[in-house]
Amino acid sequence: MYLGVKRFDLESSWGIENRDELLQTISRMTDDGHATQLEWLYRRWFRYAPQEWQEYTDALDEGDRIYARFVADTAVCCGEGGIRSWDYVRMGFLCRMGVLNEWLTEEESLWLQSRIQLRALSYYSGWLQYFSAYYTGRLYWQLRNGDNLPLLRETFARKEFDDAGRRMMNKLIAGKDSFYATLPWRYLPHYPECPDTLQEVSDL
Questions:
Q1: For the chain, which has fewer Cβ within 10 Å, the N-terminal or C-terminal residue?
Q2: Helices 127-143 & 84-100, crossing angle to 10 degrees?
Q3: pLDDT of residue 141
Q4: What are phi and psi of 70, to 5 degrees?
Q5: DUF1266 domain spans which residues (predicted)?
Q6: First CA to last CA across the chain, in angstroms?
Q7: Which helix (H) or strand (E) holds 99?
């Protein structure tokens, strides 16, 4: 996808201008990204009986009820991990772009991505669920914090991407050669040790 690209502009899209800002973003958003904004609803959906869920959501304000309906519609395909994979995939992207921009070594990027992989295996049962959660996270991301509640309700109900989202998903599933799920979904026999150069994020 980025063959021939010598540097990727992370400043305009992420506000990241250097190695320190890259590491801070990866460290923060791996566990505190967009998924946390819906985590409280996914957690309750899996723990409440149907009647309890209905009573709980009836007491929410109109905006939160729309998000609760979105969670109820997607919980089975996403699992208890909710939309965490949306954050994990994006942090994996930053790790790769860090190498491209020469802010990270391949060894550093591999270690960071191994920490993300452990979380993914913990929350998801396989590639299909991981992709479903990523897909759902992209839908949420394009409309989060929207104040047009009728539009928010309609778009979540129809579950349609914007133009950029459609292009991205088409690239992911366009053909068998581009399909992501060619690697086994399992823990690695051995995990890399944290490089000395990443001690500031060694608790990731």
A1: N
A2: 90
A3: 87
A4: -60, -45
A5: 10-185
A6: 28
A7: helix 84-100
The domain segmentation of the chain, as residue ranges, is 12-201
Average pLDDT along the chain, 204 residues, taken 10 residues at a time:
77 96 98 96 98 98 93 95 97 97 98 98 93 90 76 78 70 59 86 97 94
Q: The tokens of 134 are what?
A: 């990523």
Residue 48: count of CB within 10 angstroms of its CB:
14
Q: List the structure tokens of 204.
A: 């990731």
- Please check whether residue 138 is in contact with residue 168, taking contact to mean a CB–CB distance below 8 angstroms: yes
pTM greater than 0.85 (yes/no): yes
Measured distance CA(71)–CA(38) in Å, rounded:
8
